[in-house]
Amino acid sequence: MTTTTTAPTSTTVLDATGVTMRFGGLTAVRDVDLKVNTGEIVGLIGPNGAGKTTFFNCLTGLYVPTEGKVAYKGTVLPPKPHLVTQAGIARTFQNIRLFANMTVLENVLVGRHTRTKEGLWSALLRLPGFKRAEEASRARAMELLEFTGLAAKADHLARNLPYGEQRKLEIARALASEPGLLLLDEPTAGMNPQETRAAEELIFAIRDKGIAVLVIEHDIRFIMNLCDRVAVLVQGEKIVEGPAEVVQADERVIAAYLGEPFEGAPGKEEAAEVEAAEAEADAQSTTEGDEK
């Protein structure tokens, strides 16, 4: 008797099509398509000024793409960060953005806000429904701290954590919104080899929980060991996408990382302009967030 097993079908979690982002007359991201499926870890790499973080910002609603669309599980996302989070996409940032004077546990509880349904009056009057929701959020936050190895430091101030543990806390806070897709912007930046290995194991564990992962990273070895697929951006354009061994062998990728021009590649001046435009847009969005 022959037994036939059916492999689980992979569904598309993220579908970005034709994403273009212009700052005035400067194009930072040009006509980029990218899909991420359930059970996948996908890497996004490229030299400085390639438009990686700008593309991330388009995916998460921080920027409104000039052209193209971003869909999560078949639904086009509104260009509002909190609505993108509610839909099921969470992210971390290249520069750590924790609440330094709040405890580790409190930082994770902040990430639960999109999944709590109790209103203002329930909170002010401390009604039974609010108390139950508060207890459930606290229990879930402690589960995530256990998962990331930070449970023993739940009552520590975030600012007192070592750098590698602050990165873990950012991930725990992102996971608190119960995402189906986690976007990690340079999760190993500034880490030593031991911390990098721990980050790799944590990302694999996140994937094993059924959460799809999209990672920006400069550490090429880390990305190639971690990811099922890798896409390469060079000056805002996706030049290649595929398994690690295919990407590593691509002459255009090698040329981009060695600083050697290839046919159609933009010059250093254009790269510098893209970096400057991204920095200005990030500063503007940060200022607007502070004013709110």
Automatic annotation (TrEMBL):
GO molecular-function term, one example from the UniProt record: L-isoleucine transmembrane transporter activity
GO cellular component: plasma membrane
Keywords recorded for this protein, A-Z: ATP-binding, Nucleotide-binding, Transport
Keyword 4Fe-4S: no
Keyword Nucleotide-binding set for record: yes
SUPFAM superfamilies membership: P-loop containing nucleoside triphosphate hydrolases
Listed name of the protein: ABC transporter ATP-binding protein
Chain intervals with Acidic residues compositional bias: 272-281
Region named Disordered: 263-292
CDD domains registered for this protein in UniProt: ABC_Mj1267_LivG_branched
Species lineage: Bacteria, Bacillati, Actinomycetota, Actinomycetes, Kitasatosporales
Membrane-spanning intervals of the chain: none
One Pfam family linked to the record: ABC_tran
Coiled-coil regions listed: none
Segments forming domain ABC transporter: 14-260
GO biological process, one term: D-alanine transmembrane transport
